[in-house]
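Input (structure):
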């Protein structure tokens, strides 16, 4: 359980730093109408991106990266397909 608490604290800090602009909100809304899970993955990646727009996710292969992304999605969203903006 300590890991979940740590992830929640980290996610809260990330969410406070990211402020979506009008263009991002429009892109999110359009994507959400078509594919809610993809829209929330888009939001998560935007929140995780550094100043250059790069995201680094731990994992040495595609499967590990997918598992880490899944874990981050579950930590970030109460409902991974629910509207999040």
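Output (sequence):
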């Amino acid at each position: 359980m300590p890991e979940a608490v740590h992830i929640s604290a980290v996610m809260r800090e990330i969410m406070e730093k990211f402020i979506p602009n009008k263009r991002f909100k429009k892109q999110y809304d359009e994507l959400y109408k078509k594919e809610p899970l993809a829209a929330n993955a888009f939001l998560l990646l935007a929140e995780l991106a550094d100043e250059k727009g790069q995201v680094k996710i731990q994992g040495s292969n595609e499967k590990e990266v997918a598992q880490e992304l899944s874990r981050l999605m579950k930590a970030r969203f109460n409902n991974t397909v629910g509207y999040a903006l």
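Notes: Residues 2-17 form the longest helix (16 residues). The chain has four helices and no strands.
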